[in-house]
Design goal:
This protein has twelve helices and 28 strands. The chain is α+β, with helices and mostly antiparallel strands. The chain has a ten-stranded mixed sheet, sandwiched between helices. It is globular and about 75 Å long. The two termini are about 45 Å apart.
C-alpha cells in the first residue's frame, strides 16, 4: 500500500494574505499531477461529506492540496463571499503547479462552494489548469443559487448564512455568539427571529451576502459581476449533479453551454442525490445499491485521462450518464435530450382542491371536463385518451388546431397563517422524495391525476408547466410538484418548481421550469401534478402586497385567492420529456 505523507504549507497572495493548505504526497520519486480543492469550512473536512478522503486520492497517484480560502480555517484575510476567488485561485494554481514533485499539471474537484472556486479559477485561463470536475454549483448566481424563477431560496440561503456566521464567531473566539448560532442552525427561527439571534447574525455577517442577496431581487449588474465568467474558457469538464440538489440548474446551464461550444469532452453525471450525502436513500425512498456514489472512482479515471494521458475508456462511452429513478439503474445518453416535451392538459370538474378524482391529466382535451359526474372522461377505465395511453399531442402543434373547450376553472385560497409546507424536493432540508399524500389532501392544493399507465413511461429531460391563472392580489407564488402515484395511494414527489408571479387579475400563461429529471413511471402507477401558492420554508411566504417578504411584516400578509384555468382557449398544461 502506498505510503502517504501529509504536511501543511502556506503561500502569500499578491496582496500579502497568507493562505494555508494541507498537502498529501504519495511516497514516490515520480513527478505527479496535482488535485486541488479550495474550500471555506476548514480544510480538515475536505468535503468528505460526499468524497473519499484526500489520503485515498493521493494513493491513486496524485499530490492532493486542500486549501482554506481567504478568511476561513487558518488562512489570513477577511472572508468575502466569492470576492477573492479569481485572484486567489490564480495565485494558488501557480503555486501548486510548482510544488516539489509536481509535474506542473493541475486538476480541481469539489462541490458547492468548492465547485464555485473551480469556475472562478478556470475563468483565468491558466495553462497549468488542465481540467475541472465542478459539482453542484451555480453558473448564474442569481438564477441558479440565490433565486428560483424570481423566488428567494429562503431555507437554503438562510441556513447557509447561519453556518457561515457561526464559523466567523468561532474564528473570533466568541462562544456566546457561536452557541446562539449553532442552536439556531438546529432550529432555525423562520417565523420570528429573536433580537439576540438577529444581533449575532448582523454582528458576524456585516453587509453579509444574505442581506445583499435579498436587496437584489432582480437579475442585473450586481449578479453579473458576482457570477463566474467563462466566456472564452474551454477545458475538459466532468459535471456532477443530483436530481434533488438545489443547484442542478447551474450544473445543467454550465454543461449545456460548454457542450455546445467546447472542443474538449464534456461529460455529465447526475445521481438521485440531494446536496449531501450521495447515497442510495434520499428522503423516504431507497433507490438501491446502484445509487451509491460512483463519483470518486469516476473522477480518478477522469483525472487519469486528462492529467496522466492514460486511456481509461471513458471517452468511448456516451457522455451523459444519468440515474433513472424508478428502474434504479444508470443509463447512458449521447446528449442531453432536447425538444422531447409532450403536452398534457389539465382538466377538472372544478373541485381539484377538494377531491382527488376531480382534476385530471389528459393527452388531449375532452369536450367538457365538467360533465360526466365526479370523474372526467379521460379518467375512465380503458380510455386511451388518458395520460396512460400512447396517443399524445406534441407541444409544437398549434393551439389553434386543438378543440376549443368551455372554460373550466379551479379556485384555491392561500392563507399566510398556514402556508403549504415544504416536504422534500430540492429546495428544503431534508430534501428528496417523500409520501406527500397528506399534503395533497389540503384544500389549498390543487391535484391533477393521470389514469394508471398501461405500460412503463420513461421521462428524461426538462419538465415545465404552462398555467393560465390569476389572483386577487398584485403578486402570488406558484409551486408545482410532480409525483408518482402508487396503487396503494402513496404519492412520491420526484421533481418540482417554484415561481413568484406578478399578474394581478390579468390572465396570462405562467411558465415554470421544474427540476429536470430522469424517471421511469412503472406500469400500473400514475402521475400527479400538485399546484399550491406556498412551499414554506423552502421559499418565503409571498405577502401578496407586491413588496418582497423581506420588507413586509407577516401581519400585513394577505389571504390570496388563485384561479387556474383548465379549459377553453386558455388550457393549462404539463410539458413532459418523453425519453
Amino acid at each position: 500500500m502506498t505510503k502517504i505523507h501529509k504536511q501543511t504549507a502556506s503561500i502569500l497572495t499578491r496582496d500579502g494574505i497568507r493562505l494555508d493548505a494541507d498537502i498529501y504526497y504519495p511516497d514516490t520519486d515520480t513527478d505527479l499531477p496535482v488535485l486541488l480543492m479550495r474550500q471555506p469550512y476548514g480544510r480538515a473536512i475536505a468535503s468528505t461529506v460526499v468524497y473519499a478522503h484526500p489520503f485515498w486520492y493521493a494513493a491513486q497517484g496524485y499530490i492532493v492540496v486542500i486549501q482554506d480560502v481567504r478568511g476561513r480555517g487558518t488562512s489570513g484575510g477577511e472572508f468575502q463571499l466569492f470576492t477573492h476567488e479569481v485572484a486567489d485561485g490564480i495565485d494558488t494554481i501557480n503555486w501548486v503547479s510548482q510544488l516539489p514533485g509536481s509535474n506542473g499539471q493541475v486538476g480541481m474537484y469539489g462541490f458547492s462552494y468548492q465547485g464555485m472556486t473551480q469556475l472562478y479559477a478556470a475563468s483565468a485561463n491558466l495553462p497549468a489548469l488542465k481540467t475541472i470536475c465542478p459539482a453542484m454549483m451555480a453558473y448564474d448566481l442569481y438564477a441558479d443559487w440565490a433565486y428560483e424563477n424570481g423566488a428567494f431560496c429562503f431555507h437554503i440561503n438562510f441556513g447557509w448564512g447561519v453556518q457561515l456566521a457561526a464559523e466567523t464567531a468561532r474564528l473570533k473566539n466568541d462562544p456566546i455568539a457561536y452557541q446562539i448560532l449553532y442552536a439556531a442552525s438546529r432550529n432555525l427561527p423562520f417565523y420570528d427571529l429573536s433580537p439576540r439571534f438577529t444581533e449575532c447574525l448582523n454582528k458576524y455577517t456585516p453587509n453579509s451576502f444574505y442581506d445583499e442577496w435579498q436587496n437584489h431581487p432582480e437579475p442585473g449588474d450586481y449578479w453579473q459581476k458576482l457570477s463566474p465568467n467563462l466566456d472564452g474558457v474551454d477545458l475538459p469538464m466532468l459535471h456532477i449533479g443530483g436530481w434533488f440538489d438545489p443547484y442542478l440548474r447551474g450544473n445543467l446551464r454550465l454543461y449545456k453551454d460548454l457542450a455546445k461550444r467546447s472542443k474538449f469532452p464534456q461529460h455529465l453525471i447526475i445521481g438521485p442525490w440531494a446536496h449531501l450525502p450521495w447515497g442510495r436513500k434520499v428522503g423516504a425512498r431507497d433507490f438501491g445499491a446502484e445509487a451509491v456514489s460512483p463519483v470518486d472512482r469516476l473522477q480518478v479515471r477522469w483525472f487519469d485521462q486528462f492529467l496522466k494521458g492514460i486511456d481509461t475508456g471513458l471517452l468511448d462511452k456516451p457522455p451523459v450518464y444519468l440515474f433513472e429513478m424508478g428502474s434504479n439503474q444508470w443509463r447512458y445518453f449521447d446528449s442531453w435530450l432536447q425538444d422531447n416535451q409532450k403536452s398534457y392538459f389539465l382538466s377538472s370538474t372544478g373541485l381539484a382542491s377538494v377531491r382527488d378524482d376531480s382534476g385530471t391529466l389528459l393527452s388531449c382535451p375532452v369536450e367538457d371536463s365538467r360533465l360526466g359526474g365526479d370523474k372526467a372522461e379521460g379518467q375512465k377505465e380503458g380510455n386511451n385518451d388518458s395520460l396512460g395511453g400512447l396517443d399524445i399531442i406534441p407541444q409544437s402543434e398549434s393551439p389553434a388546431k386543438l378543440p376549443v373547450l368551455p372554460a373550466a376553472t379551479d379556485v384555491f385560497v392561500h392563507d399566510p397563517w398556514r402556508p403549504v409546507p415544504a416536504w422534500g424536493g430540492h429546495g428544503t432540508i431534508p430534501a428528496g422524495s417523500f409520501d406527500r399524500s397528506a399534503i395533497d389532501s389540503r384544500t389549498d392544493v390543487l391535484t391533477y391525476n393521470s389514469a394508471p399507465f398501461a405500460e412503463d413511461l420513461h421521462l428524461m429531460g426538462d419538465v415545465a408547466i404552462e398555467v393560465f391563472c390569476y389572483s386577487d392580489t398584485s403578486s402570488f407564488d406558484l409551486c408545482a410538484v410532480l409525483s408518482e402515484v402508487l396503487p396503494n395511494g402513496m404519492v412520491y414527489n420526484f421533481t418540482q418548481g417554484y415561481a413568484t408571479v406578478s399578474l394581478g387579475q390579468e390572465i396570462k400563461p405562467v411558465r415554470i421550469e421544474l427540476q429536470p429529471t430522469c424517471m421511469k413511471i412503472t406500469k400500473g402507477n400514475g402521475l400527479r401534478l400538485s399546484l399550491s401558492a406556498a412551499c414554506f420554508p423552502a421559499y418565503p411566504v409571498n405577502p401578496g402586497t407586491g413588496v418582497s417578504s423581506a420588507e413586509t411584516f407577516m401581519m400585513d400578509a394577505q389571504i390570496i385567492t388563485v384561479t387556474v384555468n383548465c379549459g377553453g382557449n386558455l388550457t393549462s398544461k404539463l410539458l413532459l420529456p418523453i425519453a
